[in-house]
User: Which sequence fits this backbone?
């Protein structure tokens, strides 16, 4: 208990240092002169956005009466809407700001999150896993666990997902509030509360339908509000080749501009990562865990009107995902090339920025916005940030409401109630989830880069969940006991590894890495946060799957009759009529896979 | 997604983008005529004018394409 309070005071001290009203001197000097002042035009654009998203929520309330309508948007989305929503829910301000920071810090390695760190997993979700999710007509991923492994696994997944979701919401809030504080000098509390309550209102009113409507709208705003930055930046840098040459000249001996060429040794890249970590940690464990079993993502495509729409929507999501580096990685690289060369600004880690009053890695995207976007465009850029925040948060809130209502509340608290009661619970849990998330926002500040926080959470819960689900889908021998114990062991091992690498000679420190312990996880003491997380995720997946196999061989499996439509070999795909090649998800998955290979070769 | 009485999502997107595009375009033209004291980097390209115009066109296309109150054509 004492340790928890110590942790809390550490978090609060950092936040107070970042807040204008209670700041220590360097931070106060920094926040007192925010980057930009909005014009009335910008304000009009932002206010219009809030009015439209709230209007959509109120408008859609009349279309969400039943549980199927509120939690699954009536299962009538087209492939395009499902795909746009699928990606938009992931394209939060945490995503854009965090991965831009990664690109500034680690160079083009950051783009792997959109390539090997996403595309293969999304395609496997589309072609291999979606049929099982869709045909069994479950409301959620924990719901699949209930059908496949039983109540214990579902409860463990439901509770852990609920915890993770509100924590991720908190990270999103922090990201957005920091942007508003940096660019506009807005009070951090004002930013958090106004945006959070807006999200709570429109999700509580219209459920997943409202979240999806707004996510599609937000997708357009995010792109139109951000795409101008790389366009103008590359023009200013003198073209792509000139930008790369400038970065290389400014960082002799370090390779910031390759995807793979600098992964032969941990000493060759700023992340301290070997290619095995990138492939097996990010590309296999984290990526498949996140894209194939994180219900926030899967819920969007599960709500499509047919299996083929769900699969094609997922493939469309893969294409859109592969394009995101344009608005995320490129601005980070431009920060390396343009900010230092033209403005003399060098970004530093968050704790250094706090101590010196400088700018941190996390501020690279807002700084690029401040450089290129004038009145009107700035309003759109800020709206894009707010939209990104809201889409990510709405995704979390709607997924939280579904999992909480169907996988925690209904089986554990009130088993038999009317559909209207569960819809009401969904609306209220949307609001309460937002309030809980507000309380977690400040924990994000314990890490040198906010995205690492998300990676840690993914490693804790999602990676073990993927290990259990994929074995359950593909191997009918996987037993109910194995599902539960492997999942639990995976979570415990993830948390244990995280504590181990942060255990310093003087005691536990959630910020610092212990190189002597790191080398046991990532094979090298040079590994930085991201690299360690990748290896930890891989070990977590291996432990989960090993335990699942061993326990399955020692315990009785479910009868085959109970595994119908849940397991490979016992699931019959529905007949959805003739499918021309241009609507075949497998064909398009192969096309996207070829494009992925081409991009990796071009930027090797 | 689109029920008999439910407005399509694309109409909301088109409407908002059209309004945004016009606002940004008009602001850009105003700034072109009355250059600000501290111009933005690459401001000489007037990105607000052509970007605003592009957004307005995208918005109008979506609005017209998904306008739900069109008169039905005679058979």
Assistant:
């Amino acid at each position: 208990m004492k340790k928890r309070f110590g942790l809390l005071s550490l978090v609060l001290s950092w936040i107070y240092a970042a807040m204008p009203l209670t700041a220590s001197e360097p931070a106060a000097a920094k926040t007192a002169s925010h980057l930009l002042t909005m014009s009335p035009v910008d304000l009009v654009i932002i206010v219009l956005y809030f009015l439209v998203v709230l209007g959509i929520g109120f408008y859609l309330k009349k279309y969400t009466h039943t549980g199927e309508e509120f939690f699954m948007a009536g299962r009538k989305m087209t492939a395009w809407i499902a795909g746009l929503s699928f990606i938009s829910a992931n394209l939060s301000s945490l995503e854009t700001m965090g991965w831009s920071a990664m690109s500034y810090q680690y160079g083009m390695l950051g783009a792997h999150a959109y390539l090997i760190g996403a595309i293969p997993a999304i395609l496997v979700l589309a072609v291999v896993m979606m049929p099982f999710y869709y045909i069994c007509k479950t409301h959620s991923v924990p719901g699949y666990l209930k059908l496949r492994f039983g109540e214990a696994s579902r409860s463990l997944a439901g509770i852990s997902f609920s915890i993770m979701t509100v924590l991720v919401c908190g990270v999103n809030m922090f990201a957005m509030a920091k942007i508003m504080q940096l660019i506009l000098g807005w009070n951090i509390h004002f930013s958090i509360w106004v945006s959070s309550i807006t999200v709570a209102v429109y999700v509580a009113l219209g459920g997943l339908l409202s979240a999806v409507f707004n996510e599609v709208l937000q997708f357009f705003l995010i792109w139109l509000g951000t795409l101008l930055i790389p366009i103008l930046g590359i023009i200013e840098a003198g073209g792509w080749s000139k930008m790369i040459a400038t970065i290389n000249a400014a960082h002799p001996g370090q390779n910031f501009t390759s995807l793979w060429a600098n992964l032969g040794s941990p000493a060759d890249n700023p992340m301290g990562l070997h290619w095995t970590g990138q492939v097996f940690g990010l590309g296999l464990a984290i990526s498949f865990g996140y894209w194939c079993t994180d219900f926030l993502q899967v819920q969007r495509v599960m709500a499509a009107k047919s299996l083929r729409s769900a699969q094609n929507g997922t493939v469309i999501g893969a294409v859109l995902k592969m394009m995101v580096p344009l608005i995320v990685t490129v601005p980070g690289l431009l920060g390396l090339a343009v900010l230092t060369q033209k403005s003399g600004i060098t970004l530093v880690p968050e704790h250094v920025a706090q101590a010196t009053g400088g700018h941190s890695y996390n501020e690279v995207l807002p700084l690029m916005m401040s450089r290129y976007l004038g009145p009107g465009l700035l309003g759109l850029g800020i709206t894009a940030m707010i939209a990104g925040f809201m889409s990510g948060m709405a995704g979390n809130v709607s997924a939280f409401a579904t999992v909480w209502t169907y996988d925690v509340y209904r089986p554990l608290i009130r088993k038999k109630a009317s559909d209207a009661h569960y819809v009401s619970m969904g609306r209220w849990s949307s609001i309460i989830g937002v309030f809980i998330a507000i309380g977690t926002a400040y924990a994000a500040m314990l890490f040198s880069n906010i995205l690492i926080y998300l990676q840690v959470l993914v490693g804790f819960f999602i990676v073990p969940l993927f290990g259990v689900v994929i074995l359950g889908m593909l191997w009918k021998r996987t037993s109910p006991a194995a599902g539960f114990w492997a999942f639990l062991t995976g979570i415990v091992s993830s948390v244990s590894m995280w504590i181990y690498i942060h255990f310093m000679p003087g005691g536990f420190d959630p910020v610092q890495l212990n190189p002597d312990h790191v080398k046991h996880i990532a094979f090298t003491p040079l590994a930085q946060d991201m690299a360690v997380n990748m290896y930890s995720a891989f070990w977590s997946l291996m432990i989960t799957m090993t335990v699942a196999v061993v326990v399955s061989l020692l315990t009785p499996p479910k009868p085959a009759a109970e595994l119908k439509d849940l397991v490979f070999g016992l699931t019959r795909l529905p007949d959805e009529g003739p499918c021309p090649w241009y609507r075949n998800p497998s064909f398009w998955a192969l096309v996207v896979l070829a494009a992925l290979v081409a991009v990796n070769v071009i930027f090797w | 997604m689109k029920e008999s009485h439910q407005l399509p999502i694309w109409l909301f997107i088109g409407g908002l983008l059209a309004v945004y595009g016009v606002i940004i375009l008009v602001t850009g033209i105003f700034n072109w005529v009355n250059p600000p004291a501290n111009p933005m980097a690459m401001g000489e390209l007037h990105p607000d004018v052509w970007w605003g115009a592009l957004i307005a066109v995208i918005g109008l296309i979506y609005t017209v394409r998904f306008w739900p109150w069109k008169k039905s054509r005679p058979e």
Remarks:
- The interface with chain A takes residues 1, 3, 6-7, 9, 12-13, 16-17, 19-20, 23-24, 27-28, 31, 36, 39-43, 45, 47-48, 51-52, 55, 58 of chain B (CB under 8 Å).
- The mean pLDDT of chain B is 86.
- Helices of chain B lie at 9-33, 47-65.
- The radius of gyration of chain B is 17 Å.
